[in-house]
Amino acid sequence: MTTQLAQEQGTKPVVGLALGSGSARGWAHIGIIQALEEIGVEPQVVAGTSIGALVGGAYVTGSLDAFADWVETLTVKDVFGLLDISFSGGMVKGEKLFGFFREHHANPDIETLDKKLVTVATDMQSGREVWITEGKMLDAARASCALPGLFSPVKRQGRWMLDGGLVNPVPVSAARAMGADVVIAVNLNAQLVGAHMARDSRAQADQAGGSDEERSIWNKMMDYFSSSDGEDPGFFDVVASSINIMQDRITRSRMAGDPPEVTLVPMLEDFALMDFHRAKEAIEEGRALVKRYEADILAWVGSPLADRV
């Protein structure tokens, strides 16, 4: 049903969210969803890529607020403590991180949920876009979160899955295919400046406690992830910048062909790829963004709060 037809019939359009990839900037998705619900907009369809798949999964399973409370407590050391360094297919296996999620957050089958969820992954062999709409929520999110060079690919139904950002960084098309009349897209790739790990993270890491052995391992990890201080870019600079450039170009192309009704762009240009410890800043920006665009959003979806009066 189109928005115009919905208005003519006196019904509300189905609202869909297209939550894009963007690593640590993706915590802004949390604030956006929370602020949408506060103005009476309740998305029924969620399409997520990479970090958008994880946050979208937390939302449709009813655990977003608890998830938000947890990520706001993360420190630099906490973030690295959840990473199982392997250098096999990627620097991080992801099993430790998603194992933690399974222990502390709901993980139902997607097909049993009241809201629709689709996560986007990339078939490593064929390069095809894969939409996951069934199975355990966290498994679907993990398949979408296999950023090349960072997270190892994951096998699903006999096929190796890579990050969905390689083919569809802001999955507007997936949200429409799942029945959304109005799509609110969150583009995290529009203002990419610092692709490296922020240098203040290194300072925080150096101040962390622990044994001499722990500090030695920690410093080695930080040396690997941190940017080069010389004239030449470091390894992580090159990987992160390359991925960001690619996703930005793909996002521009895909959204030009299938534009959403509303596009939200969080102002997080100083966020580095691994700044997951800055969740509070990102969440606050997401909430502020919805406030700035509240009139535009309600123009498309109607005014749910007014209907309750």
Automatic annotation (TrEMBL):
Residue positions of motif DGA/G: 163-165
The sequence motif named GXSXG is recorded at 48-52
Keyword terms, alphabetized: Hydrolase, Lipid degradation, Lipid metabolism
Transmembrane regions: none
PANTHER family xrefs:
NEUROPATHY TARGET ESTERASE/SWISS CHEESE D.MELANOGASTER (PTHR14226), NTE FAMILY PROTEIN RSSA (PTHR14226:SF76)
List the NCBIfam families hit by this protein, alphabetically: PRK10279.1 (NF007623)
Q: Where is the active site?
A: S50 (nucleophile), D163 (proton acceptor)
Cross-referenced InterPro entries, in alphabetical order? Acyl_Trfase/lysoPLipase (IPR016035), NTE (IPR050301), PNPLA_dom (IPR002641)
GO MF assignments = hydrolase activity
A single GO BP annotation from the record? lipid catabolic process
**What protein name is recorded for this chain?**
Patatin-like phospholipase RssA
Where is each PNPLA domain found? 17-176
